[in-house]
Amino acid sequence: MRLKLLFRNVFRHKLRAFLTIVGIGVAILAFGMLRTVISAWYAGVNASSSSRLVTRNATSLIFPLPISYLEKIREVNGVREVSYSNWFGGIYIDAKNFFVNFAVEPRSYFDLYPEFVLPEAQSTAFFRDRKACVAGRKLAKRFGWSVGDIITLKGTIYPGNWDFVLRGIYHGKNAATDENQFFFHWSYLNESLKKNDPRRADHVGVYVIDLKHPDMAADVSEAVDTLFRNSYAETLTETEKAFQMSFVSMTEAILTVIQIVSYVIIVIIMAVVANTMAMSVRERMGEFAVFKTLGFGGSYLSILILGESMALSGIGGLLGIVFTFPAARAFAEAVGQFFPIFHVSLDTIFMDIGAATAVGAVAAMIPMWRVIHIRIADGLGRTG
Amino acid sequence: MNVIEINDIVKSYRRGNQRIRVLEHISLTIANGEFLSLMGPSGSGKSTLLNLIAGLDQVDSGSIRIGGTEISTLSETGLAAWRAGRVGFIFQFYNLIPVLTAYENIELPLMLTGLSKKARHAHVITALSLVSLQDRMDHYPRQLSGGQQQRVAIARAVVTDPTILVADEPTGDLDRRSAEDVLELMDQLCTQLGKTIVMVTHDPRAAGRAHTLKYLEKGVLSDAPQVAVSECLQA
Ligand SMILES: Nc1ncnc2c1ncn2[C@@H]1O[C@H](COP(=O)(O)OP(=O)(O)O)[C@@H](O)[C@H]1O
Ligand SMILES: [Mg+2]
What we know:
A: 10-stranded mixed sheet; two-stranded antiparallel sheet; B: Rossmann fold
């Protein structure tokens, strides 16, 4: 009976219930999308490994490091493997087709990044062919590439047209892996530079170090940076997480704003639902007085009201969560190149549920208090 | 045997920082199975007295014993439980719950008893047949006429088999025919089921149905109907 009463009360004013539910749904949807944007922003940080270090030029990331550092770093105690990469910045046909592309040392790089999974035959083909490249699954799908295709990138940092043969398509080991990247042989880039622009040859953008044990991160960073102190290119070595974080930090202010906006949305919908509940309970004070007259206690009635408020925000919240998935998919399709990892995480859903619950509870507060304290004679109204 | 024994009660309300006395040292006894009608001008305190008898409000001083229970000393929750078992309420505006059907409205007070669904069903059907509305049990209040709604309300009032029934202007919002039906029903409840009824009314026809008349004016209760009442009764 209580449940029957609860749901009939929820839908007593159909339009009001509908509008309130839609409002809550939209708020939860917006909240979930903003949270997803925030986690997409941190995707690189979250995907980073605690056993990898990144060594870059201490002055700035835009200055390279000499390839001669490779063997010296390899000698440092605690280093299992070293690889390196150059940000290539090539454009595929048009600048709006942006994706990340690196010149790397293939064997060590794919050894260091086990999350990029290549079929055996494809990795062999990739390693063997100097002009070979590999692309992530999503990237290949985006441009309809298949293995064997010739892909031409227009260099921005390194001028000219660069032809590559697609030898492999990697897929991510898990959902956090970026499947939108593009890799090719550093040696191909370097040989060409030696011919055309010798000053820039024999340099790498960053070294990536794989540790024998994550605990050694501090010691190894220290050792590497000491090694090159007072040389013409001093280094700065940090964990991959810290390195990724430095990109996020640049946009921290925006993230903070997004975070605040996401909470503001919840506070606004709280106020709206609280108002709806207060209105609907005020209209029914006479009925609640009747319940009390019949012997129903304040707790029975306040649970009824809490349930009503929870049902509203529960239904709205559920709709919001359900619609977050197609919305996120559409969003990812529209701006996927900027947010390689854009999926609704379990954390976001828990936050959605938390927010909807908070909305329901807070909105019920004042009406519950009023119903507990209403005096029967006043509630019935005086007649005769 | 007296089922209601009211002894020297005083009730006042605060309005701003003024206390206004509504009931001044009222005493009254009502015998088991009596049908008593309470009349008096508007604002004379009839509803206040009725609410005190029904345990909806507390006296300032004095005692109210109903069926052997001293209710003036009960706590709020104690009173609520006592009301649920002992008092049936009939209001001027029926006060049915609009989202519940006639059947469910009548079942409502039984939700506070430990009765099984089956037992509740039997009680509700009995109450429905008492007011001859079996064929309307799935109707919502808005689908019923005023008279039918008041009959549902009466069924709701008697379904728990209470000791006393209180009715505040039960015919005040009804046309003459429906009012007759309702009064006939209340008369039956009294004579056939032995219910004790306290009814507040303005309506002389309604008052005429009662066995006893009391008149309240300026906080004082008197036995003999005064001129105004007898005039009304003749009308
Ligand atoms: N809850 C209340 N608060 C303040 N004054 C009240 C309250 N209830 C009744 N009164 C006052 O008490 C007096 C009697 O009211 P009431 O018992 O409703 O009269 P009646 O039912 O005879 O018309 C009136 O003056 C009314 O204004
Ligand atoms: Mg009154």
